[in-house]
Write the structure tokens for this entry.
Amino acid sequence: SQTIHQWPATLVQPVGSPLSLECTVEGTSNPNLYWYRQAAGRGLQLLFYSVGIGQISSEVPQNLSASRPQDRQFILSSKKLLLSDSGFYLCAWTPGTGNTEAFFGQGTRLTVV
Amino acid sequence: RKEVEQDPGPFNVPEGATVAFNCTYSNSASQSFFWYRQDCRKEPKLLMSVYSSGNEDGRFTAQLNRASQYISLLIRDSKLSDSATYLCVVSIYGGSQGNLIFGKGTKLSVKP
């Protein structure tokens, strides 16, 4: 069966520090991968999505970046965090073809102080 | 116009009540439809897919009206455990947002 792992679960980082969040999917190949952010009391905001290795589409201009070094690995990064980067970050995947449900990781709660 | 719109609520209902959520979508090329449930500080999880003929899963009934571009979720005999935020999700194959578009969610609070 397919599983998705996202870590860490909680992170407190100072302003200006770097960020690296990792997400891996098991049990499937060539998934579509997504990074979302959810600010407190707000809806899901799509940050990046990827349909294949090295293929990243950015939906919102900001100081974050994403990379997909392997088929089932998706990394969210920042060189210098801002206070406004605080939020709940969610990784998700869908099968590479067809229209099916999305499966979410458990999320990372990031607080920038 | 937002691609997927939902009433944000909150809907505050007593146990045993019937509650209905509505969702409209703007892209007529939308192909698949889902309702997700998100508990506080947790990840969204699929509640049910929405089929053209409508579908039911226990106390939950989902309806789709393609002509009006409208999706609904009906919850009968509400339980305290139904308290959560319900997200309407539309899939557009090859769309600009990958292929999933989320509504902002409708918050439900079931009171004893």
About this structure: The first strand of chain B starts at residue 4 and ends at 6. Chain B has a mean pLDDT of 90.
